[in-house]
Specification:
Layout (H helix, E strand, L loop, with lengths): L6 H10 L13 E2 L2 E2 L1 E2 L12 H15 L3 H4 L12 H8 L6 E3 L3 H12 L8 E5 L4 H13 L4 H4 E4 L10 H10 L4 E7 L11 H10 L3 E5 L18 E4 L14 E4 L46 H17 L1 H20 L8 E3 L12 E5 L3 H10 L2 E2 L1 E3 L3 E4 L8 H14 L3
Parallel strand pairs: 3-13, 5-6, 5-7, 7-8, 8-9
Antiparallel strand pairs: 1-2, 4-10, 9-10, 11-12, 12-15, 14-15
Length: about 425
């Protein structure tokens, strides 16, 4: 598309937007009494207006039924983890058997690594991107230590080339091949939280499997953001949270994917819990763990219904919108944002965009590396009604989310952003 640097053009795009009505489904924060320009859906998604009614339904059933709500609530609590399966499967490109909503992201990461990181004396290394989100880094370090492996010997962290900010696919594949005989696990954040880079899941998975390693992905910044095909691409496992692009509330229920090829393998080592035991025998309270088929077999405890209710209302919105339509708008939003930023006079003196310019290699987010007075500019943005995200040492992350951000939001943000350079 040929963009134009004008408010009228932004409004023209909004008028033609097939998703424009979805903005009304969310509560938009205010700054100084005015609707904020909210660009931090990559940290915490906005609250769906329907969330309260979903929560109130469960509170009403709890009040009226007590423990009987497990069987007789409008959405019987005993089966609550099943209600989200279809929507989650659609979002990650999986079969319902392969996905489950449970726990928190890092808990799920540890559970998956217990099963899929099985080091030997010769094959013990983990390969990932440098600068992975801290919770992932800590999980990798502790899993290595759990197996008496020193992190500096067992963890391979790939850095971009000198002077670059994102990893080249060829360098990732070359590193996997180079370390192949020693690799036990290849794991990446599907969309890198700092740079916004969307990695080639298919190519990385194929390369990892070619050398005999398991392959997993952290989808914290990918699910609800970019289309995924985990089953088709033969990924072994994936984990995610739901409070970012999935708009399921702070600390909302997380989730996991386990490929169908592992669905009925009871010999996989795992940390087992009561809720992962086979459903028909669960209440017999017998010894001897028999896992549910598929991802359900990794559940530990019963489902947190109140937070799960928010999850359901948000997933219903995603089913209505459709990830393909969301992706199409997302690419237009970031394309318009990039165009406007680069239309700024002498912009290279003030900032550079470190996220991939190719729209296929990024999600909703553009990361702006400030070359001078970055924190001052960020403070000015905040005072101007922009809710964005600052990451040390000098990056402002801007994430126009297609469910609730408009093209006018993007235009007005850039106008405010430009003024920060003149102060």
């Amino acid at each position: 598309m040929n963009f134009e640097n004008s408010l009228s053009f932004a409004k023209k795009l909004d008028k033609a937007d097939p998703l424009k009505s979805f903005r009304q489904k969310f509560h938009l924060p205010k700054v100084k009494g005015k609707t904020a320009f909210y660009f931090t859906g990559n940290s915490l998604g906005l609250q769906p207006k329907s969330a309260k009614s979903y929560i109130n339904q469960e509170l009403s059933d709890w009040a009226a039924l007590g423990v009987e709500g497990h069987f007789h609530a409008k959405h019987p609590w005993l089966y609550y983890h099943k209600y989200s399966k279809k929507a989650l499967a659609d979002l990650v490109g999986a079969k319902p058997l392969e996905v489950v909503a449970m726990n928190q992201l890092t808990v799920n990461l540890h559970l998956m690594m217990t099963s899929f990181y099985r080091p030997t004396s010769s094959r013990f290394k983990i390969l990932t991107e440098a600068g992975a989100f801290p919770s992932d880094q800590y999980a990798f370090e502790s899993q290595l230590k759990l197996h008496n492996i020193k992190p500096d010997e067992g963890l391979i962290e790939l850095k971009p080339r000198s002077g670059e900010h994102t990893l080249r696919e060829e360098d990732i594949l070359k590193a996997i091949g180079h370390h192949g005989d020693q690799l036990a696990l290849v794991i990446f954040g599907a969309v890198q939280y700092y740079s916004g880079q969307f990695f080639n899941i298919k190519a990385i998975t194929e390369a990892g499997h070619r050398v005999g390693a398991s392959v997993g992905f952290d989808l914290a910044h990918a699910i609800g953001n970019v289309p995924l095909s985990l089953h088709k691409h033969n990924v072994d496992f994936a984990v995610w949270c739901s409070y970012k692009y999935l708009n399921s509330g702070p600390g909302g229920i997380a989730g996991a994917f386990v490929h169908e090829k592992h669905a009925n393998n009871p010999n996989l080592v795992r940390l087992a819990g009561w809720w992962g035991h086979h459903e028909k025998d669960r209440f017999q309270m017998k010894k001897g763990f028999i896992p549910m088929p598929g991802a359900d077999g990794w559940q530990l405890s019963n489902f947190p219904v109140i937070t799960g209710a928010v999850h359901l209302t948000s997933l219903q919105i995603f089913e209505e919108a459709g990830i393909k339509t969301l992706r199409k708008k997302s690419m237009l939003l970031t394309g318009f944002l990039e165009y406007l930023l680069k239309s700024t006079e002498n912009y290279t003196e003030y900032f550079t965009i470190i996220t991939n310019s190719n729209v296929e290699e990024r999600g909703c987010q553009l990361s702006i590396l400030m070359k001078r007075n970055g924190k001052k500019a960020f403070t000015s943005l905040t005072k101007g009604g922009v809710i964005a995200d600052w990451r040390e040492p000098a990056v402002i992350r801007i994430a126009p989310v297609p469910l609730y951000n408009s093209f006018e939001d993007v235009f007005r943000f850039v106008e405010i952003f430009k003024r920060t350079f003149r102060k």
